[in-house]
Amino acid sequence: MELSPTALALLGLLLAVWTLGAALLVLRANAAARGAEGARRASKRLARMVDESPAVPMLVRADGRIEAPERLASWLGLDKVPGYLSELDARLHGLATDQLAQLDANVRRAQKTAAPFHMVVTPRGTTRSLAVQGHLADPAVSPGGAALVWFFDFSDSQSELSRLRAEVSRARDDFAALVGLIEAAPMPMWFRGPDMKLQLVNSAYVDAVGAANADAVVDGQVELIESVDGLTAAQVAGQAHAKDMPIERIVSATVNGQRRALRVSDLPLGEEGVAGYAVDIEDMEELSRAFKAFREAQVSMLDQLSVGVAQFDGKRLLTFANQPFQRLFKLPGSIAIDPPDFDRFLDIARDAHRVPETRDFPAWRRELGSWFAAGAPKEDAWPLPDGTHLRMVAQPMPDGGMVLVAEDRTEQLALSATRDTLLRTRTATFDSLFESLAVFAPDGRLQLWNRRFLAVWGLEGEFLDAHPHVEALLGQLRNRLARPGQADAIGDVVRAATLDRKQKGGRVSLADGRTLEFAGVPLPDGNGLLTVLDITDSQKAEAALLERNAALEEADAVKTRFLANMSYEFRTPLTSIGGFAELLQSGVAGDLSDQGKEYVSAILESVARLGEQIENVLDLSQSEAGMLPLDLVDLDVFPFLTGVVRDREGAITGRGLSLELRGDRSAGRVKADKRRLGRAVGHIVDNAIAATPEGGKILVDLSRGKNGVRIVVSDNGAGMTQAEAARALEGYKIAHDGKTVERRQGLGLPLARQLIEAHGGKLSLLSEKGAGTTVTISLP
Q1: Hey, what domains does the chain have and what are their CATH numbers?
Q2: pTM greater than the 0.85 cutoff
């Protein structure tokens, strides 16, 4: 049968609808399957979440049957979950009878009245604590009035709670004890609230402020601490609270009517407030002030000592060094700011060359470091490179420190060496002296003697080595004296020197003909010195000298008579010759021929020259004999000197010389013999004229100085050497044979010198070969 197109279309449409419906059914089936699978997985997940939850549910039906997971059985200590509520008591496990009875009652009440309940149970044989919460179950969960009971395991929370309760109890007890301690504390203590007002004070605080009781202090807000720098005690406590840091300060306050030093501490206690306490440190402050004063006095005293003192603490740091110690070791001034330790101190001293030279300095330094642990004081000698000798004394201290004392013994050692040298020198001097010496102690014992003492008295050394008493010594000396009784005089001299402290002497004669002179001299140390001198030879020499002195006195008298006689014998014939020549020249004997007149003139000139020479010889001889008579008068020096120069004007001009006279009347006057001073100055000018060549110049200078008149005569002649100038002043001189006289120069300069010295003046000569001569005369 052949279908029409319409039928085919309808058939196709029907097939399409059927196919679509089938597809929809398949899709729905798949969706339902997926929903069922999701519900199953959600149910499983919820069940797992219930198993992992900290609470375990138990459903109790109206007939007493129960439904619960197996985890509840393990909590209750059972092998499995029983079927009924009454079976939760398994004697050794499960719930206790009373707890089960209480649980059953609560469940029945919840089923009937829908009232929830709470309780805590502890299964038997376990330490687990379970919290039980029950209420009427939702009908969706279980219709018919079932009760849903949740078990919570709060064993850890219960232990913590028990611990907290114990701690609270202990804290309560501690707080009570602390309150009692604060109340019984001898120091004022207080507590401030967040508003910084006093809330609690102890009895010591009440007594300190003089209040009736603690309530009166809190009500009146009576402060113990006064305002300091404008800040009250509450404000300072507020600063400690704001910064959450304790504040400690030292203030003065009135405690029981007395001003005391207190150390006040404010301790913040979080949000609760601030606690405070005050410690009375007045006694400590007084001790501190006394100790500080003692330390300052000690430092001042140690600075005045001549020895160096330094102190090291238990850490071996230099805590103190007085000025002598710093000077001895040349310590820098920075030690007060940066105190060095003992090792660095030695390094500083070594750099300044103030420690001994050592081959191994580190080992030596370690050896000195052991002084800190020594049980007794240590002493050492330090010879320094510059020759200084230090005596070091180390005194260990109980705190592990050490006191180091440095004493400069350089001077003492030098004095000791000097003393030893002096003792040896004294012994050597004693033994080398020509005199015999012996030193006696105040008790009369012989202390020291020299070899000469043994030789003079003829004593034996063994006898003196026993240091005999003076009486025993005199017994030995008696047999050696010409007159034994003179020994007592020696004993008197020794006693006078040692006991009476007087110097006394004497003289004795020995049996062998010698003469000894002795003397006792008191010594500064209380001993007495006996000196004995053999004067036998000196006595003989004295007798010879006396004889010779008598002969010399006789010779001097003969010399005096000779000079007086020669003065007469020389002048008388010469005066007669001159007188007769003048008579011949005047024509008394008749007219003379020209040749006769020349002879007479020559005779008069020779007489004048010879008279002058005789005067010079007599003046020189009288001056050397000390018999020169002077006719002293007030002499105006300038006119006098002008006259001397004028008298030689002819000789000056005749030799073609020039003379310059300097000076004026301001030179003043002198006490002098005009004739002899003129002769002295004239001789000097004559020598200058004779020594100056033609065309030369002579200078005569007159001045007055501090010591008197000064006359200078100088020329530019040939001059003399130093040896020639010395010989020019010598004049007559005794020859080498000691008997004859030899003449070195003329009489001018020697006579002038003696005449000037006879006036109390001085003549000096300065000459240089080829440059001239200068003679200086000084008159007082």
Answers
A1: 47-153 (3.30.450.20), 185-280 (3.30.450.20), 287-408 (3.30.450.20), 415-534 (3.30.450.20), 630-779 (3.30.565.10)
A2: no
